[in-house]
DNA sequence: CGGTGCGTTGAAACAGCTCAAGGCTTGTGG
DNA sequence: CCACAAGCCTTGAGCTGTTTCAACGCACCG
């Protein structure tokens, strides 16, 4: 297993995403213990599934590189997109309820993950109270994200939704220390539309408008933010109500 | 403290909501230990707050009777309604992230709750692994509820949203062993509208229609379901696509 | 008994959807 | 390496469900 670790040149201690993954930080000795249970497999190819709905729940997964989409199907067979996950994000909590995953997790790009077998993790978390707390915090953060998503769907119109989505992605890259005014985003517009409760046509029209207004362009998986302030403003982040006109 | 318990004639062991509160059940000895940390205060009056956004996070709360609304305000000052909670439901997890509650929890009716001080609860949960598991399960169930809410907002039109909301409430009463075709629902239509991402006018029109069609009536906080099948059908629960016409 | 907040109803406006057709990528097989 | 197919994106025109605005009724509470 140590070979494997070195093969992937990875350990929790050296991982730049540690602060995102388990935010408030653990003691070095505790990190080492966590490290011992982490399994790092070879990366997933694009369109490969990390797990599928109905599979037995075994692990939660921390994403190290790439991007993952969580989705499922409604009773009527429509695809529901639950969210997009980036390096440092943790997925798999949907498996906790029924001891089987509720959603499908698919790689949108070449993606590598850290596999955290849950029985070992929860055993360890009994010995490291802080870890237990971390897990709860990560989960409750996820709950809050969900609430933000609902707020978006309830209160925002199409322009605001798209702007907020792009800015949200940018901010997540920012928090991870990556460039955020210009980044790769391997998400289909179709999937964004599903996630935002819009049609692909509407998303397309709005992106065309944003591009024409030199606010942001998103072409061929490449996002470039030209006017951060305006983008945030449309998204409803800033409280400046005046500059709205400019859009 | 024992006096207080007997005063409210309550203990986790005797509580009829045990299965809802911590579903898969704990050993009797463990329940007693849980019981010891539960504080039961005098009931909240209508419109009193159980907690408010920004308050220091101290406890999670299990609702014993009444109803609670969770809400907050968006950056632009709009009210966001996050959900409605009934006896057996647990609220307060929003406090975990920042060690302060994120939302406001207000009683919609005279409401009594069991107060579970979180530091004691998490200490106890280290000693009772199953309890720890229960907490995670309750949380992940909440996450799933949130997802269902998003799905509703993304995929369903106004009729379906209202129907699904009412049926969802009915089902929750059913699960608790109460009458579910006729029950009290002390939620303002205004609040339902906010929760469903609709306007009060739209909700009103739809309820009028449902009433005219003898599907369900909701007047003066009293819900009566006349045609369960049709209601479920409109809500998109049943898979029978044919009977749709009848509506 | 009059106010205040909630619910109802109607008419008009509009945001986003649907349907349709065409263009552009990307991947695959000859 | 080219040709072709499949999937995704774009653009336009018309339609429809929901909102908006406004006015009124009703119930509850002081």
UniProtKB/TrEMBL annotation, chains A, B:
PROSITE patterns hit by this protein: CNMP_BINDING_3, HTH_CRP_2
CDD domains from the UniProt entry: CAP_ED (cd00038)
Keyword field: DNA-binding, Transcription, Transcription regulation
Key word Methyltransferase present: no
Domain HTH crp-type, first and last residues per copy: 156-229
Stretches assigned to the Cyclic nucleotide-binding domain: 22-99
Keyword Transcription regulation: yes
PANTHER family in UniProt: CRP FAMILY TRANSCRIPTIONAL REGULATORY PROTEIN, FUMARATE AND NITRATE REDUCTION REGULATORY PROTEIN
Protein name in UniProt: Fumarate and nitrate reduction regulatory protein
